[in-house]
Every structure is written in structure tokens, then in C-alpha cells.
Amino acid sequence: MKVDVKELKPKKAIIQIEDIKPYFVNALRRIMISELPKLAVNEVVIYDNTSALFDEIISHRLGLVPIPTDLSLLLFKNECVCKGKGCPNCTVRYTLSKEGEGSVYSGDLLPAEKSWAIKEDKIPIVELYGDQRLILEVEAVLGRGRDHAKWQAIQAPAYRMEPIIEFDKTKLDDVKEFITKLPENLVSIKGNKLVLKDVTKLPIIESYISKENIDYITIERDPTKFLFHFETDGSFTAKDAILESVNILQKKYEELGKLLKNLK
Amino acid sequence: MIIPVRCFTCGKVISDVYEDYKKRYEDYKKAISAGEKPKETPKQILDNLGLDRYCCRRMVLTHVDLIGEAAPYE
Amino acid sequence: MTGYKCGLCKKSVKFDVKNIGMQCPYCGSKIFYKERPTIAKRIKSK
């Protein structure tokens, strides 16, 4: 296996993985969607709400706000030492109170401890007009993406296999003519292959091939080379998210191994 | 009503860029109606705000903000 | 006895259950909002 990090931003990553089968990358992708735990608002206690939106809509919107998560400090509520009652080990509390003209933003949620402050503080929750008022308290707990989309930390994880574009060597002149019709700097000729400058632009060349009815160029995909890309919603950095996902996958196999040892 | 917090399709948080988009789109419209060359087109604004996929772009692009209409009623 | 808020003059009015044909004693308006009880409401976010 070979790994090459193409792009690593706080909330986005592109990683090239080579010499591996699709099932392996897919396992990682599925762990990212459904198994990686994150914090999200689960219960809302509304004391007063005279805004234009219903209590339920406001609580739904609060649930979707990403909360920065440190998994080393938190436990699942039902596995916690407090036995599901809710304690600082498993629940994070915020309060919000706002009155009078203006927007209520996710940054108005004030945490009990400064370290849990919400980083995505520009998300509008509701707009207040006149003397409207919104006072509430929320509880955020850990959850998994398989239970609700608000607990899905990673958005749009996907991989693409590397395309191999080959052509008939006897028709080199036709290929050269075909390339002049394409947008500039899209492909270059290398032996009997066409090399894409940007792999994401593959659909462009595909559409040109079907438009011109060309049969001497074939597109195949290499099932051992992957370009894996994903984004996080802000509850983790991209680096933490992929490391944690790999950890979860590893733990699952270890558990399976332990159980199989007892077999006779 | 009010801009959805996340993109319906992929789940990316899009509501935090909506106000910025609206402001820059107004600037674009002003420049067009005055017959000047706009500083940036809607496409460039969306690209600059980090909305790469077309699912997220349509969320911002097609949203109609109507919360002001419902505001007088509680 | 439930509290209502007049939709026109925003004053708090009280009506009896037996009352037929609600009308605001201050301004005569017939549109009312039900007043929100002061208890905290607990909802699941989903």
C-alpha cells in the first residue's frame, strides 16, 4: 500500500491510495459515514419562544449545528459512569438567551466551559423582530451517523479509481486531431495513452468521445489506485477524522479476532 | 422561510455563507443595472465561498428568504 | 380559564370556557393568540 496526501486543509482532505482493492477503501468510507462519533444537540429545553419559528424547528436547527468534539474527553451517554443520567463526562450543556431585533446565531450558544465553544458561530438559527424573545438550554451528547444525520461528522466521503485512457497506435493522427477539439490543456499524449491533467475532468473527455462517436479511444479504470476525498463539518479537523476512523476500523477487526480465538 | 442549516443532499453546512452571498450578489446586481463591469459573477462568488458541489450551490442559489413575512406572528 | 392575547391591541384577556363568541373587551377584535404557559418545554432535537 502506498499513500500520498494530495491536499490537507482543516476541513477537507484528498488522499491518493495505491496498491489496494476497492473493498478496503469502501470499508473506511462506510466507517466515516456511520461509525465515527461526534457531538450534537440532542435535547432542548425551551423556556420562552415568541419568535416566528416553532419550538420543534428551532430544536431541529440547533441539532444540525456542528460542535467541536474531543473524543478523548467524552463517553457515550448510555455507557457512561452516570448510567445515562447525564454528567460532565457524557453531556455538554449550552444556554442561549436573546431578545429584541436581530439574528440569533449559533455563536450565541454559550457553553458551561469555555473549551466547548462553538467554532461555526455564523449559522443563523432564527431571526427576531420587534420584542420577540428566545430563551433555551441545550444538551449535546455523542452519537453515530447511523442513528441520525446530525451525528455524521464527515460529509461526502468518496473515492474514484484512476482512469486509464488508451488509444489505437495506428490512429495517432486521428487522436491528435481529436485533441484539438478538446478544451486546452486537458490531456497530453504519452505513448499510446492519454494523460489527464486533472482527474476530476474525466467526464469532459467522455462526453467528447460519445459526441464524436469515437471507437479508437477506450477508457478503463485502474482498481488498485484511488483518489479518496472527504470533507468534515467542523466538529473534527480532517486529519483527526481520518485517524479516528482508521482506529475504529482497527478496533472492530481486533474485537472480531478476539471472539474468533475462543472458537473451537 | 429561513436558509436551511445544511445542504439537503450532502450535509455540508451552508447557512453560514448565505448572508455573505446575498451581500455580494446585491453588489453584482447593482453593477449590472448601472451598466458597469461587476467585480465578480455569481459563479465566482459561489466558488469563493467554497461551494464546490452542485447540491450545495443550489441550496444557496435557489433559496427564498421569507422569514420576514411570518415575523409579526408568534 | 385560559389566557389569550388580543391580536390587535396585544392586551392579555381572560375568557371563561362557557364564553361563546370571543371578542376583545378593549378593542372589539376577534383574533386571539393563545398565551404560552410558563413551564419549560423539553423536546428531542431530530
Attribute tags:
heterotrimer; B: 74 residues; mainly alpha; Arc Repressor Mutant, subunit A; 4 helices; C: 46 residues; mainly beta; 0% helix; 35% strand; elongated
Give the arrangement of secondary structure elements.
The complex is a heterotrimer of chains A (264), B (74) and C (46).
Chain A: E1 2-8, E2 12-18, H1 22-34, E3 38-49, H2 55-63, E4 91-99, E5 102-105, E6 110-111, E7 124-128, E8 133-143, E9 154-167, H3 172-181, E10 187-190, E11 193-196, H4 202-212, E12 217-232, H5 238-261
Antiparallel strand pairs in A: 1-2, 2-12, 3-8, 4-6, 4-8, 5-7, 9-11, 9-12, 10-11
Helix pairs in contact in A: 1-5
Chain B: H1 18-33, H2 42-48, H3 54-61, H4 67-70
Chain C: E1 2-6, E2 12-15, E3 32-34, E4 41-44
Antiparallel strand pairs in C: 1-2, 1-3
CATH topology of chain B: Arc Repressor Mutant, subunit A
**Helix content range of the residues of chain B, please?**
40-55%
Distance between the termini of chain B: 14 Å
Spatial separation of the terminal alpha carbons of chain A:
34 Å
Rg on CA atoms of chain A, Å = 25 Å
Average pLDDT level of chain B = 91
Total count of helical runs of at least 4 residues of chain A = 5
Account of the 3D structure:
The complex is a heterotrimer of chains A (264), B (74) and C (46). Chain A is α+β, with helices and mostly antiparallel strands and 264 residues long. Chain A has 5 helices and 12 strands. Chain A folds into 2 domains: 2-34 and 156-229, RNA polymerase, RBP11-like subunit (Gyrase A, domain 2, 2-Layer Sandwich); 38-151, RNA Polymerase Alpha Subunit, Chain A, domain 2 (Beta Complex). In chain A, helix 1 (22-34) packs across helix 5. Chain A is flat. With 74 residues, chain B is an all-alpha fold. Chain B has one domain (15-70): Arc Repressor Mutant, subunit A (Orthogonal Bundle), CATH 1.10.10. Chain B is built from 4 helices and no strands. Chain C is an all-beta fold and 46 residues long. Chain C has one domain (2-34). In chain C, a hairpin with a 5-residue loop joins strand 1 (2-6) and strand 2 (12-15). The chains are: A alpha+beta (264), B mainly alpha (74), C mainly beta (46). Chain A binds chain B through residues 50-53, 61, 64-66, 120, 122-124, 126-127, 129-130, 132, 149, 152, 155-156, 231, 233-234, and chain B through 1-3, 5-6, 10-13, 15-16, 18-19, 53, 67-68, 70-74.
